[in-house]
């Protein structure tokens, strides 16, 4: 068994696609219209056939309160692995990304947390 897809709820799919591709550097994999929303996924350019991230509209009534509660408590909705967290932090800051946690050593890993502009906190991890 392998993880095929995971998702983050976003308040605006077009804005999310811009942030996740143009800023974070993921590639669009699927963009299928489904009425008002789209089946919109991105993947790592390093693993184009790897796990997909669904940029899922927050249309369900529980989605927005869930996101707001996690963000209010400073809890990231997901984590992305990076090879060099210091370099990635600098690159993203240069693009105007807001970090809620600067790179911090936590035992065997270093983590940082950023705001994805779509209502989510995302954790970067260097193992």
UniProtKB/TrEMBL annotation:
It comes from the Bacteria. InterPro entries: Glyas_Bleomycin-R_OHBP_Dase, Glyas_Fos-R_dOase_dom, VOC_core. SUPFAM superfamilies: Glyoxalase/Bleomycin resistance protein/Dihydroxybiphenyl dioxygenase. PROSITE patterns: VOC. Pfam families: Glyoxalase. Gene3D superfamilies: 2,3-Dihydroxybiphenyl 1,2-Dioxygenase, domain 1. This is VOC family protein. It comes from Saccharopolyspora taberi.
């Amino acid at each position: 068994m392998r993880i095929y897809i995971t998702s983050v709820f976003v308040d605006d799919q077009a804005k999310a696609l811009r942030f996740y591709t143009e800023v974070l550097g993921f590639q669009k994999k699927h963009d299928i219209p489904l009425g008002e929303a789209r089946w919109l996924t991105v993947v790592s350019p390093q693993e184009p056939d790897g796990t997909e991230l669904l940029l899922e509209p927050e249309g369900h009534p529980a989605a927005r309160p869930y996101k707001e509660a996690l963000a209010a408590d400073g809890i990231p909705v997901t984590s992305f692995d990076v090879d060099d967290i210091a370099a990635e932090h600098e690159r993203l800051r240069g693009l105007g990304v807001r970090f809620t946690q600067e790179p911090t050593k936590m035992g065997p890993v270093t983590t940082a947390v950023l705001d994805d502009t779509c209502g989510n906190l995302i954790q970067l991890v260097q193992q």
